[in-house]
Amino acid sequence: MPDAEFCRQSRHRTLGHLVACQTAWLPLLRKIRDGAVRGRVEVHPLRLYDRDGFALKPWDLLTKRFLSDRQEWSGILGTIDLNAEIKTPTRIHTAVSLTEKLVRHEARHLDDLKDSG
Question: Most buried pick, 73, 80, 93, 110, via CB within 10 A?
Answer without folding.
Answer: 93
